[in-house]
Predict the 3D structure of the following.
Amino acid sequence: MNNKFLAQLGQLALRYPFCAACLVLSILFAGASQWIRLDLRDLEALQQKRAREGDVMLKAIARGSQLRTELTAARTATQRITENLVVEKNIPENFWYFYKIEQDTRVKLTELLQRPASLQDGDAPTTYKRVPYSLKLTGSFRSAVAYLQRLETGSHFGRINSFQLQRQDPKSSDVSLQLNLELLGFP
């Protein structure tokens, strides 16, 4: 029966070729339409993702000059930080920093030691290294405070961990300042 049906279908197609071609095309287009409908969700998600990327790109293009300005400022700040880092093994230059402040503030450094570096946190990134120092100085109260202020605002980045300020002699206006501090250095 199948052979007879197929034979009749073949004869109809030969008799009406235009109708047969339209029927075949209609079946193909119906299948393609169904395939596209099933794939529509994926295509919509992809289109929304591309639209978001385009919006981000448009905002970046619109803020391009601002971003370039911010990048320049960040590079300048990074360069300034790098220029003001100490090198732990360059002891004479590091000590000169303290002696220069001594000279400018008119105090007398009685002791200056570069202490061994403490262990860094194991998990923390080592972008910079802490270089610890211990120092003692004597001078007038104003000079000692000026020295302390110059350390805080000087060219090298440092952190004062502890300090002790004492009057040397009750009859004298001179004080003694003992500091423990760390300067920021190269790893």
